[in-house]
Amino acid sequence: MTAQSTDEACCTDTHRSDVCCADGHFLSEEAVATDVETLSALGNETRYEALRLIAAAEDGICVCDLEPELGVSQSAVSQALSRLFGSGLVERRKEGRWRYYTATPRAEALLRVLDETR
Amino acid sequence: MTAQSTDEACCTDTHRSDVCCADGHFLSEEAVATDVETLSALGNETRYEALRLIAAAEDGICVCDLEPELGVSQSAVSQALSRLFGSGLVERRKEGRWRYYTATPRAEALLRVLDETR
DNA sequence: GTTTTATATTAGTGTATTCTAATATTAGCA
DNA sequence: TGCTAATATTAGAATACACTAATATAAAAC
Known about the structure:
Distance between the termini of chain A: 37 Å
Strand content of chain A: 15-25%
Structural class of chain A: alpha+beta
CATH architecture of the domain at 44-117 in chain A: Orthogonal Bundle
Oligomer: homodimer
Low-confidence stretches of chain A: 1-17
CATH topology of the domain at 44-117 in chain A: Arc Repressor Mutant, subunit A
Helix content of chain A: 40-55%
Strand order of the largest sheet of chain A: 3-5-4
Radius of gyration of chain A: 19 Å
């Protein structure tokens, strides 16, 4: 049944929905869900570009600055930021009537890898 | 109009759809498209788990080994691998009647960062 | 307190995604 | 030459997504 050319050291007896990762240990269902959420949150042009702009702004950037750059409605920008926040890619702080967004270390690491491997 | 708390060293005069990245230079439209394609390709449970399995198998793994692990139809597995290949996350080689898939350096780097920052 | 400005939420719509079932292709084997 | 096994392709259906327009909230300014 198996067509593996070499022996299969790992993953043949994997419990369904637990997944094997590169160095031989297992990934919990929760970790998979977290990663997939992270990746799909970033896998959209509006959100990706929003995060790029946020990561480029040293002290955070507010929604009103993002809106003209992204070329979609204010509502769409707000929804994009909300999703980025929900998936742990940005932090936000309130200052007066503005909300400033900053990128999390995870987000910065991901952008760095994308740049380094493109 | 702008509500930036500090001066904005970068990105105020961004050409539409060219995006500013973390260290101050610009990202081409093409680079954005590439990254978004990469991220959305991985932002799906079936494809993410397929890539994890591929990355865990030293010498590549064939579709027939992936199918029982992923719990979707053979057609869905084939479509998943096709998309991963198309977005540069896996390579494939033909050997007899099997096709072996391996992860690209970009894919491995992304998985590593996800593991390190989760 | 009313108005204005920044952001969030909701509802609805068009489009894209992801799967299954069926069929096609391709390569080894009898 | 057929037959079987591995993978790919296509078509169609259910569901998820991303947006806009309209409305709500919340804080400053007047």
